[in-house]
Every structure is written in C-alpha cells, then in structure tokens.
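Quick start: what a row looks like.
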Amino acid sequence: MQNKKKIAIYAGIVVIILAGIFFFGSGNSKKREYTFSKVGEGEVKKTISVTGTLNVLDPVVLLSKINGIIEKVYTDFNKNVSKGSLLLKIDEAAISQKVMKISANLDSVKLELASAQRELEGKRNLYRDNLISKKAMETAEIQYKTAFSNYKRVQLDYELAMAEKKSARVYAPINGIVIALYKKNNEPAVVNQPLVLLAPTLKKMSLTINIDESDIGNVKDGQIVYFSVSAFPDKQFRGVIKQVRINPVQNRGVVTYEAEVTCENMDLLLKPGMTATATVEVSKKEKTIRVPNQAFIVSPDSDSENHSSKRNFIYLKTGVISDKPYKKVKVSTGIIGDMFTEVKSGLKSGDEVLIKFEDKK
C-alpha cells in the first residue's frame, strides 16, 4: 500500500514537470511566417539616376569682329529672326574715315605703279636697242617691283578696312530665336566679345547629364533617358543619349563624365538653364521570366553562403507542410534590374519563391 502511494507521488511529480516543460517551452517557441512571390513574365529594367542641365541645341553665338560703340540694337530677347535680318549696328564713323584715307592712298600707289610700269617698258625698249645699259634697265625693274609691292600692301589694307566696315552691321546667319543679347545701345564692343546668342529652335533641346565614374561603363549612345524638371514635377520628359563624352570632369575629388541628350520640346515647356532629375535606362528586357530582387537577398538558413552579394540560388516553395516549406534551387540570371532580376533557367512561370520571412512568438 505504501509502495503504491510512493508511485502515485512520483507520477504526480513527473506530470507536473512535463506540464511545466510544455507550458514554458511552448511559451518561448517561435513560429516562422513565410512570404512567397509568384514567378511570372514581365519587364526587367535597369536604370541609373543622374542630374543635368537643359541647354539650347546647336546654339549660334555672334561675336564682335571690330572694336566700337553699339549704335543701334534692332532685335530683342525671345524674338524670332530670319536669316539675313539686321540684329545690331556698331558705329562706323571712325571706320569710314579710315576707309577714305586708305582709299586715297590706294589711288596714289596705283598712279605710282602705272608710272613705274611705263618707265620699265620704255627702258626695256631702249635696252633692246642698246641705248641704255643693263644696269639702268634693272634699276627700272626694281622701281616697278617696289611700286607693285606698295600697291598690294595698300590694297590689302583697303580690303581689311572694307571688311571692318561691313562687320559694323551684324546680321542673323540662320533662322532662329534670340536667346540672349549681351549689348545695349551706346555700350562698347570689343573684338571676339559675344553680342547675340541665337537658337535654331526651341522645339528640340539638349540636356547635359553628369554620370558618376562608377556608372559610366553602363552608359552608351542611343540609350533612353527619362527626366523631370521642378517647373513641371508631375510631367515626364523623354530623350535619347546622343554622345557620351570621355573627357573627365573633376569636382572636389569626384569624377563624373558628361553625356549630351537630345529631347523633344514641342510644347515649349522646357527652358534653357533648367535643372533636370533624370534616369538613364541602361538595360531593358520585356516578356522574360523574372523574380523580385528580394528573392536573392532573403536568408532563412544560417549558412554563410546566403549572405553573398552575388548569389546564384533562391528558395522555391515546395508545398510540403513542414518546418521548412522551401528548398534551395540554383538559377541562371540575366539582367539585374531595379526591382526584378531576369531568370534564364531554374524556374518557370507559376513557381513561388521566398521573398520574406518573419519569426513570431
């Protein structure tokens, strides 16, 4: 009887211990929830973010060819001008006096040249008849050559002066629109100083973007660029890279490269000088098997390989009810896009891949 009582006491203790273990153990156990994403076909796109500045496409800068004072400006900002129209005029009074003086000098040397030529012809005739010495004839030849040299020099001076006088009137070399006027009436002009900036059109613009050296290897001519400006934040504009320049630009230790983008501006919304925020579409593929990029980052197992930055496997849902409803699958990838990665082999449309897990008590 006493033995039965001891057995009952021991059994009770065991039950209490097992109950405690179950209670406290189950209270500390964690339940893991998995999130899977269905594999399907779609677009995979890789872009890089850049900034840039809008400019006039193929601008024409008219420089002053002479020194002088601006007599009259015949155009204005934003004005459409035709090829050959007069834009401004530089005071040509001083140039006209110079032309008159050189013209008079030119008439004088013409007479001297004509006289020297007649003298030379006469001396040649006399020399043929043995009436003068060879030295006398050679002296006449030297005098003629000197007169001819003086004539050519003065004639060149006259042509240059006439070119200066012609340059006093500045005409539009193209049909276009006046973007900038650098001079006003009565202001001085200096040789090679800009006078007018013309744009052939504003319906096409140039966007110069700055590309970081780490991204320049992915940027090529012909790639699509999407951009926006602060004046129209909800509107997206589109352009195409025309030229990637290999000349490096260094600013505070940062190296960038410039690329010229041409873009349409049919509504004339874009203005020269605007700052643009842009994305360059460096690669794109449509209708391809793709998975979210998270599938290559999530690590439900503890092996160190899971944390590789270039993983070639993912976790595929098995449909089996167990503590691990997934299995590791090796895949071959293509384009690694901004949100999705192209999968060339190892998966099919309809498969489900692990993209997230969470431990809950």
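That is the whole record. Helices lie at 2-28, 93-128, 134-167. The CA atoms of residues 3 and 9 lie 10 Å apart.
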